[in-house]
Amino acid sequence: MASAVAATTTHAPAPAFAGDKYRGAVVEDLQLPPAFALPADEAISRAIELAYERDFSQIPVLDQHRKPLGYLDVAALKTKWEAGEANPSDKVIAYMNKFQRSRSHPYTLITPSTPLAELEEFLQDNLFAIVTDWGRKFVLAVATQQDLENFVKRRGM
């Protein structure tokens, strides 16, 4: 059936990304700043200080091998801090949101070569995406819906 339709078409086929509002762009095209992440054993006093210096609301938390364990929700931590429920010397691992990895919630690999359409789909269910290398050994950047919106505005799409 598809070949009959193609035989009657008189113009060239559309590129693969014709329906893609990102025009085939990938995460690398977002030109994200390098990621800022914290080791799991960092004191929360330092974490809050660094988060506010950089104006970040979520910060990836890494293990001793620099693999992502979870993330720190800075606003939630600040609330606990102000309520006296967190001590300055407490470690961020005690307050981080652990990534849920299971068969029902598999790890979604987001790399610099991930198409923006896939990133957009991922961000429909997540606040942000951690961009890693293929081996998940290094956190390269953090991407948000805002980054996608800025990209579209910059490109006049």
What features would you highlight for this structure?
single chain, 157 residues, alpha+beta, CBS-domain, four-stranded mixed beta sheet, two-stranded antiparallel sheet, globular
Structural account:
The protein has 157 residues and is of the alpha+beta class. The chain has one domain (23-155): Roll (CBS-domain). Helix content is 29%, strand content 17%. The chain is built from 5 helices and 6 strands; from the N terminus they run αβαββαβαββα. The strands form 2 sheets. Strands 1-2-3-4 form a 4-stranded mixed beta sheet. The chain starts with a helix and ends with a helix. Mean pLDDT is 83; it is low at 1-18.
- Look at the structure and give the CATH class: Alpha Beta
Give the mean pLDDT.
Answer: 83
Q: What is the rounded Rg?
A: 20 Å
Q: Total number of β-strand segments?
A: 6
Q: Find the structural class using helix and strand composition.
A: alpha+beta
User: Do you know the CATH architecture?
Assistant: Roll
CATH fold title: CBS-domain
Distance between the termini: 34 Å
Within the largest sheet, what's the order of strands? 1-2-3-4
Proportion of β residues? Answer: 15-25%
Task: Give the SSE order as H and E letters.
Answer: HEHEEHEHEEH
Fourth-tier CATH superfamily name: CBS-domain
**Can you count the helices?**
5
The biggest sheet, with number of strands, parallel, antiparallel or mixed sense and barrel status, is:
4 strands, mixed
Structural domain tally: 1
Uncertain stretches: 1-18
In helices, the fraction of residues equals: 25-40%
Label the overall shape. Answer: globular
